[in-house]
Amino acid sequence: MRRFVAFLLGTCLAGTFVTPAGAEEQVAQRQEQSLRRAVQPDAQMPDGKRMDFDLGFGLFKRNWVAAPSSTQAVDGLGPLYNARSCNVCHPGGARPNALLDKHGDPVPGLTVHLGQAGKAGEAAQPDPVYGEQVQTQALPGQQPEARLSLTMIDGPVIALAGGEKVQLQRPEMQLSQLAFGDLAADSHAGFRLAPAIHGLGLLDRIPDAEILAQAKRAKADGIAGRVNWVPDAISGENRIGRFGWKAVQPTLAQQDAHAFNVDIGMSTTVYPRPAGDCSTSQKDCLAAPNGNSPQFGNVEIAEPMRHLIDSFVSFAMLPPQRQRDIDRIVAGEKLFMAAGCHSCHRPSYDLPATAGLPARRITPYTDLLLHDMGPGLADGVAEGMASGSEWRTQPLWRLGHAVAGDAPAALLHDGRARSILEAVLWHGGEAAAAQQRVVAMSPDERTSLIAFLRSL
After folding, report:
1. If 0-12 CB within 10 Å is exposed, 13-18 middle and 19+ buried, where does residue 118 land?
2. Residue 416 CB partners (closer than 8 Å, separation 6+)
3. What is the residue-wise DSSP string for 230-280?
């Protein structure tokens, strides 16, 4: 099967089965070139995994096609979808650096998640018609669920010690041409910007006991992180959520399979429905041809292909940052700790040796727990056991790649923050005390803090 996949990727790169690049692919290519972020294998990746990594990267960048196709191994796109490839939303393995493309349209990596709060003690539910996510693209003969546009509106003005004032902003969503009527009255909609993929395999290796111990540990300043217990899609057992903005996926393999199903509309053994996120109300979508093939396990992404993509994502890393002005970075790290940021952004973990991988220390700066971040960041979208104002602590490693140069960034779950400072100033709820300590810093101290964060 590996030889078959290698042959397939070779023919794709040669153009045999490649369809003309659409607008979303062109956006991804421009972003990848302009960001100049080269994904690379983890230095501790076993030598025997190099071919899997390279083949997986090829599949990560592949544009999937509609079924039926002359090449059954690569068909099954849609019928409704948000992107034709993984790379469209994660250009070069990185996150998008803007919310809008040059035409003023939302970039493909910005999606609309839907959720209804569950009853007490029960998990959240998707919208009964539109599902977990709004799909804005459709194959010929199908109708996109909606048209998405956004405008940036002013948020609060934050006065900092030293006289500086910062005008915050946030994106406001407009959903039009809803194909199946209005969202349910209890459904909330919120933006989610695709994150970078580096280091996800290392987060997958953090022992459950470490995460649980953090949730039980008493913390100052009203910080009370908790686990999002979510079902394993195969066993049905509840497990610790680690991945996604609200820690709604328990393993990297499940996260990858879920993205294939909801974002691209393709089935795997983990999520076998070939119509992706289509609900029972979407009859045309359910009746459309699909790429489930008996010779590939009656799914659209055959198991060998799924494992190759998992291998790539497991070992994908972005190159380390060049360190400048070490004294300022050291001072900034001390300020980071003094402000209490480390209470949620735990700096490091010791990973035990496992499955041929050596023990190592990692520095992701996250506790992987849910925290209530207050009304400023709340969008009402509940996922799993996470409420509309709770978010998983975002890992900070390689943050400098997201704010390279002087160009505006697109940080936080909806890309609203144009800089690291704006991202910090949006922190509320459990992080309010830490945010206020940053506000009270002198301008020089804040410069040191930002220098440290950019160095990660």
Report:
1. middle
2. 155, 168, 169, 170, 171, 410, 422, 426
3. EE-TTT--EEE--BTTTT-BSSHHHHHHHHIIIII----SSS--TTTT--T
Q: Is the dihedral of CA 381, 382, 388, 391 positive or negative?
A: negative
Q: 269, 303 in Cβ contact below 8 A? A: yes
Residue 40, beta-bridge partner list: 317
Side-chain-side CA neighbours of residue 244 (13 Å): 26
**Burial group, residue 216, by CB count within 10 angstroms (0-12, 13-18, 19+):** exposed
The token pair that represents 84 in the structure block = 């034709």
Instruction: Give me the residue label for tokens 């991945």.
Output: 243
Give the DSSP per-residue string, 14-56: HTSSPPPP-HHHHHHHHHHHHHT---EE-TTS-GGGHHHHHHH
pTM equals 0.91
Question: How does pLDDT run across 392-442, given as a tens digit for each residue?
Answer: 999 999 898 888 766 778 999 999 999 999 999 999 999 999 999 999 999
Omega cis (within 30) before 79? yes
Which tokens is 261 given? 């199903």
